[in-house]
# Entry
Amino acid sequence: MGNRYSCLAALVGLSLLAGCAWSPQAQEEAHAKLATAAQLDAHFTQLEAAVDGQCGGQQERYAQQQQRLDGVDADIREVGSLLRGLRADLAQAKREPETVIKDCAVDSDIGNKELLGRSEWIGLPSIGTYLQARIDSGADTSSLSAREITPFERDGDNWVKFKLALEADDTVVDAVRDKWIEAPIERRVRVLQSNGEASRPVISLLMTLGPIREQVEFTLNDRRQLSHPVLLGRRFMMDIAVIDVAERYLHPRPEFPEGAPASEAPADEARDIDNAETPDQS
# Structure
């Protein structure tokens, strides 16, 4: 603003000096042509606004261009990082593959399934004894060796009573060898035999095998001609167990008050003939 008034004062001074030689009419015409202070101020204000508008627009465009350049620079750095990673992967791929051999330890638990041998000890708490069982995924249902199987009715329901069918050298709690056992019949199954069809009752018993404690369905039939008094089929094993046929007795024998201690089980296991059996189709 100070510069504007300096210019105005200079113009007025020049006019006064020139007026000494001008005629009155010339002086009036000159004064008419001179701009007033307000007009000069308005003109300078317009010039400042135009300059500010041009400079401000250029600064905004410069800032936008700088932002774009920063984005491009970041993209370039990212691409460079990806290229370095690709070069490293290619260099790794060109190397000779290394042969890695890991020792696979056999664990008694595979995932959430229990590992069983082809023969195992089971416990029947409701009967009060342990028995040797053959594990066979070729059989559908499990089977318990029984004799004197006698169906009867109790309170309108079908029941069965029986005794365990065992050989003299079968390992069992002696107190239950000739004990009568009673249980409700869950269902009956038909089994094809060489001399025709046979109908067998199916009962449900609580069974333990190592950490497994499950209700298991057993068909009742005389298994004294076979190697084990109990057969465990795939219905029992489904979702809870797998078999390692190279192993036997991976789990300890359960103990019962009137039975022999588990420490004597190895002697009984040594007498396990483990003959091949025909898969039970029940």
Q: What stands out?
A: The radius of gyration is 52 Å. The chain has five helices and twelve strands.
